[in-house]
Design a protein that fits this description.
The complex is a heterodimer of chains A (482) and B (227). By secondary structure, chain A is mainly α. Chain A contains 19 helices and two strands. The mean pLDDT of chain B is 87.
């Protein structure tokens, strides 16, 4: 039964190979969707499972409750993004389409491996592999801008994540000089190794700095709006919705080691600084943003900042809120990016000022966009409302009232910026643009399945209320990293 | 001479070569020369692994040394060399930092590396195999390479020069890994090597495409995306 943890790694290998070999366009289009369903199913099975933690190959693969929860998030968000991006056209798949499908499968497999391993070295390899898989996905369109985004993404992503490798290496050295050469997270957090605090301090700081680059936290966020703005919409949804969360997951694992060896002080300082910095950067740039895909990317930086603040606070309430926030943000952000991709395909521009009166002209696009943005803004009943309140309350209880005041002010600025941009796009009369493209999906890619968007938004709305079983599962997952 | 004595001498020689190649990479402007210097650096890194294998009496590390030699001494420099020929651009014309101040920068970075590596050296010296002593005291070399790699990424303008910087950074991390802990576990080492190779290939391909789209690529020209 433990072998079930292999399924999220083997399924994408088969599906990716099928997408490359079979020339039918439908295989390429649906391979990512099927893979996401498999990952989601395995995640749910692992969440429901009790008893000993599944463990394969000496901890190379290990699925505790946190891994199971993250796997579920990858599956759910992956399903939203890939299903929302399905192109129903039949016929022969071009080479680019097949490569795209295979790379999406590799991307999903790399993220699954990252959350399913107990070995920090393998975790690093998997996170670096996501950079490798997404490099050509970001540059998929081949335009000057997408190549520029891909270049900056790969250079900054690899250099930043390499810093994390230095941290992992030093943790290994610390374990070795304490008597047991290991990269096993379970052993390093068990507290039975006399790890050298000076060395661990350097190691965890470097590891957090490196993984924070991948998580899009300030000041290492500059690649994010470029890459998320230029990638095809489903890929943007995957990157914003789960890749950032997987990098944050790595930070949470490192933080647990630091808590055991050093106490919470160092991590709290680092994460609080990064979190507040990200919120400030996001607020400043959302207020003057002119491109709606980049607007959504900066909203991701804002949410990652909030999550870093939550991780800095720590404790059961804040950690549970962080995990629920990861799920809610992933679903809402993937939906928003998929709809933004359709708006881009329909309108032919990603500039906010060139899109007007969307609600009157294209209600089928405007309504899900507005609902997704409302979810991201933290309107009740969406889960993000509860998690944002919970993080602020937890921070207040932990004696970080000043930081929570700053968070609230910055969230208010983000709120104003997002509402202004969205209102500018969707409100207004229909008649400003005339001609054939004024209504109806005029270009290829402007239509697409609506079911995944509805499902994702409904899930975001319901998940905050379903204390059982969701609340219990999240509480168990949060307990893993305390 | 005993095996341990030889191992210590090889360790000193290889770490010296690593430091020297890092400094030369800052000094030279030519990308073709950078590819050759990286090959030398890869060979020096493999020699370092052999010296640690001898000191630790660890046969598995000899396998790691073979992987390092093949990958960092041969394959990755070839990938870089092909990228240079494909773009037809060799010289780094407008340096942000001239070579002399670059070399002064390297000495400053080396001093900094000695200062910051004290907790690492203190924690790892004298534990583990017989070479742990000399190896632990060579850790600043690895950190200097990491910092020099960052310097190259930040100060060079040609797209491929940033790849050179990343590769030096990665060699530096590998050096730290071998000096402090006789390398990471073999599975992880293989995964890391594969990732680095793929990143090098991707950056070489992307720089070719950028070259086709823009002409000679200066990173400064990558400014269409901003707020």
């Amino acid at each position: 039964m433990d072998a079930i943890v292999l399924v999220p790694l083997l399924a994408p290998a088969l599906l990716g190979a099928a997408a490359v070999v079979v020339p039918d366009r439908r295989v390429a289009a649906w391979s990512g969707v099927v893979d996401s369903v498999v990952v989601l199913a395995v995640g749910l099975v692992l969440l429901a499972r009790r008893g000993p933690v599944p463990d394969l190959a000496d901890g190379l693969l290990r699925a505790d409750q946190l891994s199971a929860f993250m796997l579920t998030v990858i599956g759910a968000v992956g399903l939203t993004a890939t299903w929302g991006g399905v192109d129903r056209a039949a016929g022969r798949a071009t080479r680019a389409e097949r490569r795209y499908a295979a790379l999406v499968c590799v991307f999903l497999a790399a993220m699954s491996l990252a959350v399913l391993t107990d070995n920090l070295g393998v975790l690093w390899v998997a996170i670096e592999a996501t950079t490798v898989a997404t490099a050509f996905l970001v540059g998929h369109r081949g335009t000057r801008r997408s190549l520029e985004a891909a270049w900056k993404y790969v250079v900054l992503g690899s250099v930043g994540v390499a810093i994390a490798l230095l941290g992992v290496v030093l943790l290994y050295a610390a374990g070795r000089s304490a008597g047991e050469a290991t990269l096993s997270w379970t052993v390093l957090t068990s507290g039975r190794l006399p790890l050298d605090p000076g060395l661990v301090r350097v190691a965890v700081a470097l590891a957090v700095l490196g993984f924070a680059t991948k998580a899009g936290l300030a000041p290492m966020h500059s690649w994010l709006p470029d890459a998320h703005g230029q990638a095809p919409a489903p890929v943007s949804g995957l990157m914003s919705g789960v890749l950032l969360a997987v990098a944050l997951y790595a930070i949470l694992r490192v933080r647990a080691i630091a808590d055991v060896v050093l106490g919470p002080g160092l991590m709290r300082g680092l994460l609080m600084t990064a979190g507040l910095g990200s919120l400030a950067v996001a607020a400043a740039l959302i207020l003057r943003q002119r491109d709606y895909k980049r607007l959504l990317a900066y909203s991701s930086i804002e949410h990652m900042g909030l999550l870093a603040v939550g991780a800095a606070i720590g404790g059961p309430l804040a950690m549970a809120a962080v995990l629920l926030h990861v799920l809610g943000h992933g679903l809402a952000k993937a939906t928003a990016f998929v709809v933004a991709g359709r708006i881009l395909a329909a309108e032919g521009t990603s500039r906010i000022q060139d899109v007007r009166g969307l609600l009157a002209r294209r209600p089928a696009l405007a309504v899900p966009f507005v609902v997704a943005v409302a979810a991201l803004l933290g309107f009740p009943p969406f889960a993000l409302f509860f998690t944002e309140v919970a993080i602020v309350v937890a921070g207040w209880q932990a004696g970080l009232g000043w930081a929570m005041a700053v968070v609230l002010v910055l969230l208010l600025a983000v709120f104003a910026g997002l509402v202004r941009a969205t209102a500018a796009m969707v409100l207004g009369p229909a008649g400003e643009r005339t001609g054939a493209d004024a209504s109806g999906p005029s270009r290829r890619g402007a239509g697409g399945p609506v079911t995944p968007l509805v499902l994702a938004l409904c899930a975001t709305a319901v998940v905050g209320f379903s204390a059982l079983p969701v609340g219990a599962a999240i509480a168990r997952a949060a307990g893993v990293v305390g | 001479m005993s095996l341990d004595g030889l191992a210590t001498q090889l360790l000193a020689l290889s770490t010296g070569a690593l430091l020297l190649t890092a400094a030369l990479l800052v000094w030279r402007r030519s990308l073709a020369a950078a590819a050759r210097l990286l090959a030398v650096q890869g060979v020096a890194l493999a020699a370092l692994v052999v010296s640690i294998a001898a000191a630790e009496r660890d046969a598995e590390l000899l396998g790691v040394a073979a992987v390092v030699l093949a990958l960092k001494g041969v394959v990755i420099p070839l990938v870089l060399g092909r990228g240079v020929r494909a773009t037809g651009v060799d010289r780094e014309n407008a340096l942000r930092v001239n070579p002399t101040s670059g070399l002064v920068g390297v000495t400053l970075l080396a001093t900094l590396a000695y200062l910051v590596s004290r907790p690492i050296t203190q924690a790892t010296a004298g534990i583990g195999g017989t070479a742990a002593g000399p190896a632990a005291f060579a850790v600043p070399v690895g950190l200097t390479m990491v910092l020099v790699g960052l310097l190259l990424v930040v100060t060079r303008r040609r797209a491929l020069s940033q790849l050179v910087g990343f590769l030096v950074l990665d060699n530096g991390i590998a050096t730290v890994a071998f000096l402090t802990a006789a390398g990471v576990p073999f599975v992880v080492e293989l995964g890391v090597s594969l990732d680095v190779l793929l990143v090098a290939l991707i950056l070489a391909v992307l720089s070719g495409r950028l070259h086709a789209a823009l002409g000679a690529v200066s990173v400064d020209e990558l400014n269409e995306l901003r707020d």
